[in-house]
Design brief:
four-stranded mixed beta sheet, two-stranded antiparallel ribbon, Glutaredoxin, 4 helices, 25% helix, globular, 168 residues
Length: 168
C-alpha cells in the first residue's frame, strides 16, 4: 500500500457505479468495514459526526459493508444504503458489499492486511468496524480496532495529524 497503490483500484459504490479510488488522491482516508447488525453498528453515528467535522479539511470516510462476521451484514446493497441513510443519515461514501477476509478477500483488504503491502499495520481483520487511516499520499499511517470509537481521542488525534495544518 505504500506509494499509493490503493489508487490503482476501482470499487463499486453502494449504488453500483464504478469509483476509481484515485478520485481520493490528496485526501486523508478512514477505511472502515461496516455491518448493519453488529454490536458496533452504532459507530455509524460517530463516523458520520467525524466526517462532518473534518470533510472540509480533507477527510473522506469510506465504508465497506462486509458479511464476514456472524452474518451481520445480510442485506443487499440497496438494503444497506437505505438502513445507513434512514437510521444514521450517512453521507460519507459507502461501497458495495465485499469480503474483508478469507479465500474471497477483496484486493483492497488484501492490500490493507498483508505484511508485504502494509508492513506497519498488517494483520487480519478482527471484526466489523476495523479502521485504517490512510495519509494524503496513500500510505497507511494507523489502524484502529473495532472497539476504538470514531470520536476516541486517539483516533481524533491521528486524523488531525494526518490532515496536518490545513485551514478550514
Amino acid at each position: 500500500m505504500t506509494n499509493g497503490h490503493i489508487y490503482d483500484l476501482v470499487m463499486k459504490d453502494i449504488g453500483g457505479a464504478d469509483v476509481p479510488l484515485d478520485r481520493f488522491k490528496g485526501k486523508v482516508l478512514l477505511i472502515v468495514n461496516v455491518a448493519s447488525k453488529c454490536g458496533f453498528t452504532p459507530q455509524y453515528a460517530g463516523l458520520q459526526s467525524l466526517y462532518e467535522r473534518y470533510k472540509d479539511k480533507g477527510l473522506e470516510i469510506l465504508g465497506f459493508p462486509a458479511n464476514d462476521f456472524l452474518w451481520q451484514e445480510p442485506g443487499s446493497d440497496s438494503d444497506i444504503k437505505s438502513f445507513c441513510s434512514t437510521k444514521y443519515n450517512v453521507s460519507f461514501p459507502m461501497f458495495s458489499k465485499i469480503s474483508v477476509k478469507g479465500r474471497d478477500i477483496h484486493p483492497l483488504y488484501k492490500a490493507l492486511t498483508e505484511k508485504e503491502t502494509n508492513p506497519k499495520f498488517s494483520g487480519k481483520i478482527t471484526w466489523n468496524f476495523n479502521k485504517f487511516l490512510v495519509s494524503r499520499n496513500g500510505e497507511i499511517v494507523d489502524r484502529f480496532d473495532s472497539k476504538v470509537e470514531p470520536l476516541d481521542q486517539r483516533l481524533l488525534g491521528a486524523v488531525e495529524t494526518a490532515i496536518g495544518g490545513v485551514a478550514g
